[in-house]
Amino acid sequence: MSWHVDPAVMERYARQEVGPADAASIEAHLVDCGACRARLHVDPARLDRLWAGVADVVDEPSRNPVEALLRQLGVRDRTARLVAATPALHMPWLVAMAVTVALAVVAATAGDRGFLFFLVLAPVLPIAGVAAAYGPRVDPMYELTVAAPMPAFELLLLRSTAVLTSTVLLVGVAAIPLAGEGWLMAAWLLPALGLTMATLALSTVMSPIHAGVGLASTWAAVAFLNVRGLAGGDATGDLASRVLAFSPAGQALFLTIAVIGTFVVIQRRETLEIRSNT
Amino acid sequence: MEGEPSDRVLLGAIADADRSALQTLYERHAPWLVLRLSRRCSDPDLVDQAVQDTFVAVWRKPGSYKGSGEVGAWIWGIGIRRLIDQLRRRPALAATPELEGIVVSAEDQVLAGVEHGDLASALNALSPELRAVVQATILDGLTIREAGRLLGIPSGTVKTRMARARVQLREALA
Amino acid sequence: MTTVELAGIEKSFGSTRALDGVDLEVSPGITGLLGRNGAGKTTLLRLVATVLAPDGGRLRVLGHDPGDPDGRLAVRRRLGYFPQEPGYHQNFTAFDFVDYVAILKEMTDRNTRRDEVRRALETVGLTDVMHKKMRKLSGGMRRRVILAQALLGDPALLVLDEPTAGLDPEQRLRFREIVSAIAERHTVLLATHQTEDVAALCDRVAVVDNGSVLFDGPAPALAERASGRVWLSGGPDDGARLSWRTGDGRQRHIGDPPGGADLAEPTIEDGYLLLVGDRALVG
User: Fold this and answer.
1) Chain A residues lying within 8 Å of C69, measured CB to CB
2) ipTM computed for the complex
3) Where exactly are the structural domains of chain A?
4) CB–CB of B17 and C133 under 8 A?
5) How many CB atoms neighbour CB C143 within 10 A?
6) Chain B within 8 Å of C77 (Cβ-Cβ)?
7) Could you tell me the domains of chain B?
8) Global pTM value
9) Counting C-beta atoms within 10 Å of the first and last residue's C-beta, which end of chain B has fewer, N or C?
């Protein structure tokens, strides 16, 4: 810097008492000159107040797309943060689920065995998501969560709802190509609900992961046994409609399981308040 | 000033989520930004809001400084545009003509140590409205539309005033 | 006024008896829980933090019974906890982490919560880096973040499970400064296997070994225990229970001193070693 602004003039500038041409050249000079900038006097109280205002905006939790989406839907920010921390709502999980569903739908359009495969696979996704929503193996902050006043049941409920909703939407949207099968295309919904509530209910006595794996395998095994020995048919929905789970009686059964499961979870929610080792 | 991190270094730290770097940059640049914006807008609340928005923008997008020119100039670009945003939302007063009418004495010109002479007096000789558009477009680096928003006039008026200002300045400097 | 009372506390995990009839009273100030890994310190702290429930015995924390759901909730509202292996979500910044716990601690108003998170991070000296990702912070800074979440809401009881594990001496010193500053008007229960932490910080100390409390009293009293039982010499001494070479080239011994031995001023470490014996050096 070859020259600096005279301090007296700087003071007049700060008091807005210089003419436009001078102000223009002072301002142009200040863009480059830190020394002159440092000599400017502005009311410190005002500067402190403005900094506090900046800090109040800057000091926020980091933004996260899932959380932003939830808030768009009207969810309270603190609820959104708790839900957004669910592993099953993170990119890797969502991608894996999307790919799985896409493959299942492709299989489903290929014939009646494929369609059955899709219907059996669809409920497994929410089970997996819910089993991974809470617990020492999946939540790195599990111990702090248990020791905190917020009821564990509330957290589990929030996360399970979010997982269930997102997987149902995912599968529902992906299954649009199967609309030709009529109501059968949604025959996985009630089993999904029933098995998810059963997973939650079992989580009050065992590790959620064990519960999820156990229920998912049992479900798949029963469906497989049910179908073994049945000959294939011409229409896509032929095999599926003969599987017990997708018959009206089966659907009613799963609805009942969902209701009982919900009841059990509510009754046994206190068990979630103590740390489990699994 | 020696031994302290440069503005560019501070921006690099801000990109790395260093809050103290933001605070240092604020302490360096907020004072002049407040004053310079106050000369474009006489409503201190709007100036306050614009200054705060500026530093929040610096925090969120430090990478939009592309490394050319002074960091101060980049900050000014953000600041003046944030002020324009505020004015659009709350059409208040831009700098009032009275501020622009202060006559500069020869003595002041010498004190400022600035090479004045013809350009300065030509500028001072412009009417306040013409001077305002010259300042907005040439000195503040705004587009025609942005200048219009700052001054609360349509773009067409900005253009005609610019043309008249150019004519007058050319005549005065000829 | 006792903050925590344990009487005849028992806890087993399968066939392992982690706590075998523990009696302990913790009062305001800093109480150290000294013992090697596997001695039962973490189990004991988890019981106090209401994360586990005892199999038998009587437990009172802050005047409440954690076995009762309402009592447990009341304790949790006045508790700050630093668990033994604290984890965090990969993408969390320090601010995210403390804010998340603040939500779990029922701080519903966004602005109040933000202010409280800032206060906690400022107390541990992390204001400048609060927006950096946890995984990018040094180990010492990360542990300070965990400490910050424990300080949310200014809890009456702080339960810290080996908070300085893995830190270098300078970081440990920093940590101790923070803890001693906040210990006024609060009760701190601090588990550690470092006797220097106890010597530097604790008013009282309890020695835990194999699920029992072997000593419970003022920290200097633990050192006193070894009075007359510690001596130094130029080389090994077969008659000593424990013996090791010290930094200045001499050999330090604990046990029954031979006649004419140079008795040494006992430290807390000496008292501790005397209590737990050879097992301490192995474990």
Assistant:
1) 270, 273
2) 0.91
3) 7-59, 65-276
4) yes
5) 24
6) no
7) 1-94 (1.10.1740.10), 102-174 (1.10.10.10)
8) 0.88
9) C
